[in-house]
Amino acid sequence: MSGRGLGKAFRCCDCTVRRSSRGISIQRRNFTNSSSWQRHGEDSPSPYHIRGAKSATGAVPAFTETSSPELNALLSEARLKIMLPSHLSRQHKSLIYRQKYEKELSTEPVIATIAEEDFQLQHIDAKIDVPNSKKTLQKAMTLMKDKKDWANLPNLLEGLNVAGMNTNTERVKGSVVTQCRLAGRQEVLLECLRRVKDTGMQLKEPRFVVRVMLAMQSRAFSTDFHEHETAKALKWAEMVVALMENPEHAGSRVLAGENDPRLQPEVIGILLELAAVRAVKHLESRDVDGKVAEYGARLVEKRLEFKTPAEETGYELNQWLIAHAQVLHGIYEALKVLESSSAVAEGLQKKGEVLDAMVSTYYEKLASIASKKQKQLIGLQMYEKLLG
């Protein structure tokens, strides 16, 4: 294609996109893969410039240097082959995807400027060159080891979300929660949730919210409720509940009945457990900030009723017991702190009796299933550690 032809092809899209601000506040040193994209410099052979396309998408999410060359390469590839095309106009997508322009792109450099950043466009074979978004996310999380690696996760989710991947599915969100929990990077999970506009990760489904709350609590549980970790876990859990008030999560003045995540007793119960354990173990059984009484009062509300497992399968019973053993533990710990004659204590006593019977029943059923399959299940271990 002649220079004249290229110029004609690009004239239809000459808008400049403003840089979007992203929430994570860290020092950035962007890395590039010179074979994939580069800033236009003096040595470049008079490239054509096109001003980026979709103003609604803002800047292409950038990544900071990681501890792993393999992770660097994976993020670079995702940025070039998954994210960048979603910021281009239809005409420019045609330019990079269509085979007939491959030679021209290699001989006549084309620079796309998006939110003041220059990208040299290269041919992409959509059938073989574009990585699978879900596999890219999963592989990236397995390669993330230290704090600076994990700091890239919110931007990775943002880029994949803008590129068309549904990041709000139970499977994707559940995987993010699990990997962050296992890595002890709850603060990164919070950032992903805070940036819901970018990442798409909504706190809306009750099961998912309970899973997030358990992830926040896990740092305290895994350290036998160490003072620092318990206080931190309580702060994190409170931040999750506060985020739910955001309209982009579950927020609305009208509660959505029993399916509203803010009305799940497991959610308030985990807050109660953390506040009560903190009071008993680290504050001489004193409710110094009133949080034990506050969360206890919320838990005894009539509309917060404990539900039975969705199914009596090993998986469902295990998930149910993991959450409800924590809540029952929280009730018992709270009763050590509150005045026994108070309305909140009396309400918790009654609530605890109901939950105790349920927990004991489902513990026995799960233990029977586990013995037949010869499996060690977390729900059983948690019950035995907290309540046994």
Layout of SSEs?
Blueprint: H1 3-10, E1 48-51, H2 69-83, H3 90-97, H4 102-107, E2 110-114, E3 117-120, H5 133-143, H6 147-150, H7 153-162, H8 170-183, H9 186-194, H10 196-199, H11 206-222, H12 227-243, H13 265-282, H14 291-299, H15 314-335, H16 343-373, H17 378-386
Parallel strand pairs: 1-2
Antiparallel strand pairs: 2-3
Gist of the model:
The chain has 388 residues and is mainly alpha-helical.
What does it look like?
- This protein is mostly helical.
- The chain has a domain of 165 residues.
- It has 17 helices and 3 strands.
- It has a 3-stranded mixed β-sheet with strand order 1-2-3, covered by helices on one side.
- Helix 9 runs parallel beside helix 12.
- The longest helix is centred in the last third of the chain and has 31 residues.
- It starts with a helix and ends with a helix.
Features:
disordered N terminus, 3-stranded mixed beta sheet, 388 residues, mainly alpha, elongated, 17 helices, 3% strand
Main beta sheet: 3 strands, mixed
Uncertain runs with pLDDT below 50, 5 residues or more?
1-46
- What is the N-to-C succession of helices and strands? HEHHHEEHHHHHHHHHHHHH
3D shape: elongated
Assembly category? single chain
The number of helical segments is 17
In whole angstroms, the N-to-C terminal distance is 76 Å
Q: Strand fraction band?
A: under 5%
Structural class estimated from helices and strands: mainly alpha
Lateral strand order in the biggest sheet: 1-2-3
Fraction of residues in H or I helices: 40-55%
Q: What is the count of β-strands?
A: 3
Average pLDDT, to the nearest integer? Answer: 86
Q: Which radius of gyration do the C-alpha atoms yield?
A: 26 Å
